[in-house]
Amino acid sequence: MKEPDKIFNGTSKFYTSFRPSYPRDVIEVLRKEIGFSSEWSVADMGSGTGILSRLFLENGNIVKCVEPNDEMREMSVRNLKNLKGVQFIKGTGENSGLPNDSVDLVSCGQSFHWMDSQLAQQEFKRILRGEKWVALIWNDRVMDPETFTGQYESVVRRYSREYHSPGSTVLDLEDFESFFKGNFKIFEFQNLQKMTLDAVIGRYRSASYAIDSSDPSYVNLTGDFSKIFKQFEVKGKVEMTYLTKLFLGNL
Question: Could you say which of 20, 94, 115, 116 has the lowest number of CB atoms within 10 Å?
Fold first, then answer.
């Protein structure tokens, strides 16, 4: 079992290149529901290579990118260092290193399921001010077996010995009810990623459960990806379909 801060070692170049972004709809919902604005300070917990952080930075927010993995954090520095308002912190959702009452919103993009929810709740309460808003966000693959995305899922499950349920499906509704004490809403948005075969393989290699290219079954894995790619590709690309889920509440 990998140490928590080593889970994504070796994946940062794939993560930054082949993971999907988050739709702008997230910002619009935050504005409508909680009065979010560019004046708010955001702590992005488990910020990885900075995909969600970029959405807030481009909205004009100050963003504190909190990430335990050195490789992922260094990649986020390369990706975001020229954007105004960004700060990079080595820390975790349970121990961010941020001061008390220092941010207006905590966000977690594709990261909350890696945290101890009770310890994270305590830490979020400590660093948040005002109404203590938290936005937990995932890009969940849509598992229709008749689509490329569904077939991709089948290949992933076939070869990945450390596979776990993707995205928010790692958690049950009861987990969110416990974390937010029942005070939250769920919002969903369509999200689409058009990908070449190299991007499909890179997308897989960005996952914590991906087998290494030195694994004896890796050739068969990429062969199966190639087969389903040929089945669904149009003009050299396939579509990976996601449902972006936002769990929004306060603590």
Answer: 116
